[in-house]
Structures
1.
Amino acid sequence: VHAKFPFTTKQKIKIAIDSMTGIQSMHDHHLVHRDLHAGNILLRQNSSGVFTAVITDFGRTLDPQLATDQDIPQAPRTRNPPETLVKRFSTIDRYAADVYAMGCNFHILEWRRAVPWAKLYNVYSLQAYSPERREKMHRYIEKQYAKLKNEKIGAILSKKSHGKRLTDIERFRVLIFKMLSPSPEKRPSVH
């Protein structure tokens, strides 16, 4: 998915549904992808202009029960969830990490830019960071997430709390922020 391509709302939602259907199939078979970035989401457009999105590159796929502290949750460092800062890799919910990575991809699809904290830490260098620094970075991400959430979907959440019906793109935007939650237990499953 190239962020410069002007996708319609309907196309964005179709790409998201197709992508998550592929991840759902993997998760249903007790596998996690671990390399979810735009280059691994291929699009095919038929003569009617309808896209089909397909997840590819299963070279890092893993049964989460076999994960060790050496198994980084996501290969692309900017798609690693914030909990990699404060938890041992072997204890991270790998399904939630896949959901977070797809949330990062959908954020780019919708707003054409990565989340502001994407390059804050290098997961490959975490051993060089003190526990205090990691904790501080994690708190910073939580604050940045809250700020960005308010900026991007604050009005939508207010509309929702007043019982007003949300449009498809508004519901998609709310879902993106659920997927990006710094708390893995607050992220939705692929289902």
2.
Amino acid sequence: MKLKINNYISESYVDGPGIRFTVFTQGCIHNCPGCHNPQTHDFNKGVYFDNEKIVELMNKNPLIEGLTLSGGDPLMQIDECLDLAKMVKNQDKNYDIVLYTGYTFEQIIEMGKKNDNLMELLKYIDYLIDGPFILKLRDLELNYCGSSNQRVIDVQKTLKENKIIIADI
């Protein structure tokens, strides 16, 4: 399967814990004023990139600790991200997965009632940075978030306990 991406960074230190392989998906409907990646919004731009190639590139670097799906908004390509997440998790590498989205976790759960693949994708995500970027709430002191309304959610604990659990990373 191919994911439509804007770009990737083979070694990122700011998109989640540890050294990350970060993929910037193409396409976003949120269009947050002040967005860090406005070039990723247009659905007509970007290139299709094979998910197997992404995993191959990740595996070439022994320092990589996980995959970050950023954007754009990865949830604009649920099936493709699910395919990639399964490939990443179904290895002996012990990678974690971070996903950035402009949707809140509560909105994702509502959307998941109509999309089984979205709920399945959550089973593979370790940390979700949720919510739109809000320029007036911008805070450069936050880890992994751009504005104070955004949360770093431990998805697996949240699903297990059926309440939002903020990650301590």
3.
Amino acid sequence: MRYPQNQKTETHRQIVAAAAREFRVRGLDGIGIANLMSEVGLTQGGFYAHFKNRDTLVAEAVELAAEQSFCRLVEVAESAPGREVEAMLDSYLSQQHRDDLGQGCLLPAFASDLSRQALTVRNAFTNALKFNLGKLTRFMPAKTHKTRQAQAMAFISGMAGAVLLARATDDPLLSQGLLESARTQLLAAYGVKNP
């Protein structure tokens, strides 16, 4: 039975969105195709009507998760003119972000998994990261574009590392301390734009 193209497109989008969410929660190898398809009310056999293979799905889910993560961060920055860096730090290094695995940033959720993925998946992540670092660059305080790019790389690495460690510990005080210390240090380094 053939379905209208718009229904196939919507189903494809639902599968990718479910994968992006589930991969953030369970890791890239934490959910199988059968379980993922069941999440969207389909059978495993329907998977191949949408994707060439699992790597194709993972690559698309990585791209979507990156887009969602960085779009939220940019929206937060744009909603706080003059205090963009502080707003991003407050949002990213919050308890809410730490605890919301399914909607949180992809970097602390599965960046370490990416090094063991197929080249197509790593390439999708690399392209998404480069594109999104470009979005963050404009909020960095350095005077030259090259230095702002370097600051954006250190900024997102510091935030992602703090959330990764805060999620990994079973000590609530240590977890909160990791978030707060990263916020303090990054705000001191990047919080004031040069005149």
